[in-house]
């Protein structure tokens, strides 16, 4: 057997026994440990592996460089394995055939697909066997990027026909989340680097080589708006993750959360890059005291201590952890299952809203382009109609009574900020819309507003105060203009 196996470990005690049993055919197993605190080293040494120690410094590419410079492999061909990967008998025979042939036609590295498992089910559609670099001649390859490395091959590369088995969640969901939280930090850094230094080569997107296409698609994804939602929709709908059942849905949601973490950390890095807290502000003098806590009304300035304190308060999230999780999950459902349903699937959309806590009455018609940001703060009576591109923004409670019609592009905003304070805390006053009301096209309804029964609000009006019942109201701000006659009656 002319193959060496390279395994990188960090607390892989749970996976190593079965891995060593799986590769007992290999006589040269190298383990590079990055500071395991469990029995990983003990298990590796007992299995006859050569163990090297290299601390993890946050750069996977540099980690591989150290390995290739300091580890002496006994064989020319190296098989790279993670602790949760297993070699099938078919793949073993294919590797032996490649390593044993004298004429390799210049191919010095091979990508290998993986059969990814979750809850004992193969994620055939939501996580198909994307090729990863796993088999190569040790002196003809290097790896770049700090995380999810990109191989640079000195020569031709090929693709293995058989798959590795990948137990991606062998340590549980919590470990996967912790690991991808770390990955997301590095991915955010790499994304910013790539945006600044690399452009997308559009021709390569249509390359016949899968790895080349994959690299360019990833570079393109760095530049997409709504990156997390796009990935969920691509994995769950376009790629067919819904065919993987419950396991597929869970995995697509986890990938959505991972991408969302990357987006948030990119925003955080940009914020730090602008050195927001590094702005020099001279302390003002209030009543002869250098560190007064008052605002200088004339110059609109504030002393540095108060400024920093108030800005820190502004950056704190007003949402609980449960609300954050619900908003992320609902955002995924709304941007896919809700938004891309057929236009007349009203019962389906009502079901989805109820599933996330909205109280929806009978026979309500809600168009698929409606934006409902927080459904658990929405209550709607019977026989209501919500038109295209309506925005329901219920930071506070929005109550819509029976037989209400809200026309296209109207915006009901049950939230504002206290602008009398520097930290501008979020306020959530409610909105109540009475029965038999018609809110016409492009109307804005602000927070803390009660609209009386039977009211008609003319197109493009703005509502900032309560409106009386059975009146026709127009303007900015909207005012009652005349009585509304209903079936010939007031």
UniProtKB/TrEMBL annotation:
Gene Ontology molecular function, alphabetical: O-acyltransferase activity
A Pfam family hit: Hexapep
EC class: transferase
GO cellular component, as recorded: cytosol
Keywords: Acyltransferase, Transferase
Glycosyltransferase 2-like domain residues: 4-151
InterPro entries recorded: Glyco_trans_2-like, Hexapep, Hexapeptide_acetyltransf, Nucleotide-diphossugar_trans, Trimer_LpxA-like_sf
Entry EC no(s): 2.3.1.-
NCBIfam families listed in its UniProt record: PRK10502.1
Family note: Belongs to the transferase hexapeptide repeat family.
Protein name as it appears in the record: Acetyltransferase
UniProt source species: Poriferisphaera corsica
